[in-house]
Write a structure and sequence with these properties.
By secondary structure, this protein is of the alpha+beta class. It is 42% helix and 18% strand. Strand 2 and strand 3 form a beta hairpin. It binds zinc ion.
């Protein structure tokens, strides 16, 4: 279930209004980071194993994901791991970030500048709304009356007529910048700190703290120019203000502010990803790599690129399955309008599977422009197939013949209980049917039965409604194309003849005589076949 954020659809009323305060709507700024890993530690007693002196920098404590603790010094770091000198045995270890307690991992990555652009974003609770035409919109519900729903997002205010909505409205957390513009987010956050920033008698330390928090917030919403302005204002407000992360933050914000244009491109890529516009996102990623080969944001870029591709592959897999079922049904419905049974059958045997594949492939180019039919079939074969579906030949079961109608069915339909007074009657009827069939074989010697004129597939097809034809086509495709996994086949007795295949009539005129004739509904096949499949 993936979001389709068509928030800029033409024709929909979009007013870029100053929305209500994001804070009032529940924007939460990322948690204020601690001063860093604990510094209070036992004094070093022995020098490192190789005889060199212990580092003079403060001792650090690493908290590991499994609950363990390591004392020592971080000597080096990359985006992948931390080089650590251990106090307990003087050994040097390369620890992958993932071995660290997640909170400390995040703290240290922030200090070292390995911040994932998308990892500490402010989030808001938003509503996901579906329309009858299959579009999805995500936003914060601003207003609703008996006519329409007003949905606010960063692209403006959207009025959705209630009559167009389908399904239930789902609430979920989404990045705040999907709902509010950068200016809206900043103005809102600024208003919270305004008393501390502008009052004449404000304590310089309080003022500096406000700048620090604002700078942090701006960073979290990709607003690096403003982040830098506030980091720089700290020293001006209070030269004595200290924070263990200040120097690193100032350096990082400066680097990113200088690359604000690039950061904006990354944000745009991320936004395209959020709307599942993968080809556009990929194109922009290629442009980014060409335009900024030495970008200071390369690490952010590489991380974003990997996550865009991963999302795309996940959506492709999901969509391949959804679109496949969609097209089977749609093409079957189109084909059901064909009055010529032979041509429907020919299509089922030769063109159907290929047509479905071609249609699904065309759909999936929306996710990856150059996707091939081979790849789509591969995705289809890997589908989750969690939902069990059903198809039935209905009254038209006889068209596939008596044997195919019962193929793979475990246990015939249940017999009427012996105590049922009708069972004796039924037994007699079955005996007569057997006699009748033997006579038919002798007389016909090759299937030239007198009922053939009535059991004309073309005549049946012409007399059958499009809905029944549609169901029949789907059932035939499911069982014969090899595209589906049939999990179960079942039959139920024909409602006309009760599962015997024949009816009995009293012949008029000469006394007690009765005559058997083939059931006109099931043409002797006696059952309706349905299959379950994935
Ligand atoms: Zn019947």
């Amino acid at each position: 279930m993936k979001p389709l954020l068509h928030l800029s659809l033409a024709g929909l009323l979009a007013l870029l209004a100053a929305g209500p305060s994001p804070a009032a709507r529940g924007v939460t700024a990322p948690g204020q980071q601690d001063a860093g890993p604990g510094r209070a530690a036992p004094a070093a007693e022995e020098p490192p194993a190789d005889g060199e002196a212990w580092p003079t920098t403060p001792l650090q404590q690493l908290r590991l994901r499994d609950g363990g603790l390591l004392w020592g010094w971080i000597e080096s770091h990359t985006s992948e791991r931390v080089g650590f000198l251990r106090l307990d045995n003087g050994g040097r270890v390369q620890l992958p970030w993932s071995w660290l307690d997640p909170r400390q991992e995040s703290e240290l990555k922030t200090i070292f500048g390995y911040v994932d652009l998308t990892s500490q974003e402010p989030m808001v609770l938003a509503a996901r709304v579906q329309t009858a035409s299959g579009d999805e919109f995500v936003g914060v519900i601003q207003n609703r009356n008996d006519q329409y729903l007003e949905l606010k997002s960063a692209n403006g205010l959207l009025q959705l007529p209630l009559a167009q909505l389908r399904g239930t409205i789902v609430e979920e957390l989404v990045p705040a910048r999907q709902i509010y513009t950068r200016d809206e987010l900043y103005d809102d956050q600024l208003s919270l700190h305004l008393p501390a920033l502008s009052g004449p008698d404000v304590d310089p330390a309080v003022k500096a703290e406000a700048h620090f928090e604002l700078a942090r917030f701006c960073e979290s919403v990709f607003d690096f120019r403003r982040a830098l302005v506030h980091y720089q204002a700290i020293a001006e407000a209070d030269p004595t203000f200290t924070h263990p992360d200040l120097a690193a933050s100032l350096e990082r914000a400066g680097r990113r502010a200088a690359a604000q244009e690039q950061a904006d491109v990354l944000e745009e890529i991320d936004r395209l990803r959020g709307r599942q516009l993968y080809p556009a996102a990929v194109e922009l990623m290629q442009r980014f790599a060409t335009l900024y080969p030495d970008s200071p944001l390369t690490q952010d870029f590489v991380r974003l690129q990997a996550s865009v591709i991963a999302d795309r592959e996940r959506d492709l897999l999901e969509q391949a399955e959804l679109r496949w079922h969609y097209w089977v049904s749609k093409l079957a419905r189109e084909r059901a309008k064909d009055d010529q049974f032979e041509s429907v059958l020919a299509w089922l045997e030769e063109g159907c599977s290929a047509d479905v594949l071609a249609a699904v492939t065309a759909d999936l180019t929306r996710y990856r422009a150059d996707i091939s039919e081979t790849e789509v079939r591969e995705l289809w074969n890997q589908r989750a197939a969690t939902r069990l579906r059903r198809a039935s030949y209905g009254v038209g079961t006889w068209l596939i013949g008596r044997d195919a109608a019962r193929a793979g069915v475990e246990g015939e339909e249940e017999q009427a209980p012996a105590s049922d007074p009708r069972s004796e009657e039924r037994k007699q009827l079955e005996e007569r049917i057997q006699r009748y069939l033997r006579n038919q074989q002798v007389a016909g010697a090759g299937g030239n039965r007198d009922s053939d004129s009535e059991a004309d597939p073309q005549a049946y097809w012409e007399a059958t409604g499009v809905a029944s034809r549609h169901a029949w086509i789907v059932a035939h495709y499911v069982e014969n194309s090899g595209d589906m996994r049939v999990t179960r086949a079942a039959i139920r007795p024909c409602r006309e003849c009760g599962g015997t295949g024949f009816l009995e009539i009293v012949t008029a005129g000469d006394g007690q005589g009765t005559r058997l004739f083939e059931c006109p509904l099931c043409h002797g096949v006696a059952v309706v076949r349905r299959v379950s499949y994935r």
